[in-house]
Amino acid sequence: MEDKKTCDSCSEESCSAKKQKKNENQEEYADRQRLQARLCRIRHKIVVLSGKGGVGKSTVAVNLATALALHGQRVGLLDVDIHGPSVPTMLGLEGESLKGNPGELFPVEFGGLKVMSLGFLLHNPDDAVIWRGPMKMGVIKQFLTDVNWGDLDYLIIDAPPGTGDEPLSLCQLIQPLDGAVIVTTPQKIAAIDVRKSISFCRRVNVPVLGVVENMSGFVCPKCGELTQILPEGGGRKITSDMNVPFLGAIPMDPALAEAGDSGRVFIYHFSETPTGKIMQDIIDQIQNMNSTKKLDS
Fold this sequence. Notes:
Helix content is 38%, strand content 21%. By secondary structure, it is an alpha/beta fold. It is globular, with a radius of gyration of 19 Å.
């Protein structure tokens, strides 16, 4: 039976929801307690960020969450990329619908992974989400407060791109976050946005676990030779300049693109390929940070 501990019965005196804040009304306080009661059951919370869209952020989030689940961890994957919820497609979950009770939603379960995405709430996958900021903030808060994740070892959050309202609300609501994985592509114009993402994390007190450089060269499907198409090394240079870890460089691999389009998780089906081993090394580094930084304490 799951532990039904609430903020009222919590013995953790340092809990931020233990006391009502000044100028916080009773309804706001109750909402904050509900949110904290959900988050307290999740041991590690990692957000995947990018300074701009189209760099492969969802690919990293999906494969990270799946790899952790394959290692026996209890994992949730939260897709809050409101204007581009691609996680259902990448997991082959298009057409899945959510179940729940009044005031509570249950994530879709997929091979030991619990998944939540705005894509599950759209009647038509071609529908555009045309919302102003307050409505988007409300949905992000609802995903965190009303989704019954249960007890998790990890929650991986696929964040909207940029450093605006949605990532800011996300990082302020989920406290504490264990850290952020930032995804970029190698060319200078994209890597410049990594600086913004790193500065953003520092402003909101979120540790940067490291930077992943995606689309770093092209792997020939016939001979396996790696050819640099985009200017190389932008992500690695900026991590050196800004003193954050460089987790690795994932090449363009036709199998990686095909896996995402067909709903087959790359790290599961192609783990023994050179690209699969690179991705696994990146994931292992993120896992190892849990012990070196004593995130379990």
